[in-house]
Design brief:
By secondary structure, this protein is mainly β. It is built from no helices and six strands. Strands 1, 2, 3, 4, 5 and 6 form a six-stranded antiparallel β-sheet that branches. This is Cupin 2 conserved barrel domain protein.
């Protein structure tokens, strides 16, 4: 049976778990304008970020990528990452466990 969830009903901020099962971990990231998530890493994961609305400057390592609604970025989580909300923003973030394949 599918589990249907609306991102708008999730209340935790800035991170809200989308599903109870956390493999792969999926969160709704909601940031107010001028909010920044400090540099951090997710070394066991490949990460996918889909920007739903707003505008985010995403720092990966030493590079900054300007994201607009509809953009999808995927990257190895074993590097510094820090999203900064240029304006109120919502993104869906998936942390996919790395495999030895």
């Amino acid at each position: 049976m599918p589990d249907v969830t609306s991102l708008e009903t999730l209340e935790e901020a800035p991170h809200a778990e989308v599903f109870e099962e956390r493999t792969p971990r999926t969160v709704r990231l909601q940031l107010d304008a001028d909010d920044r998530v400090p540099k951090h890493r997710h070394p066991e994961s490949n990460v996918v970020i889909h920007l739903i609305d707003g505008a985010v400057d995403l720092t990966l390592g030493e590079e900054v990528f300007g994201l607009e609604p509809g953009d999808v970025v995927r990257f190895d989580g074993d590097q510094d990452v820090s999203p900064y909300a240029v304006e109120d923003s919502t993104a869906l973030v998936v942390f996919a466990p790395k495999t030895d394949a």
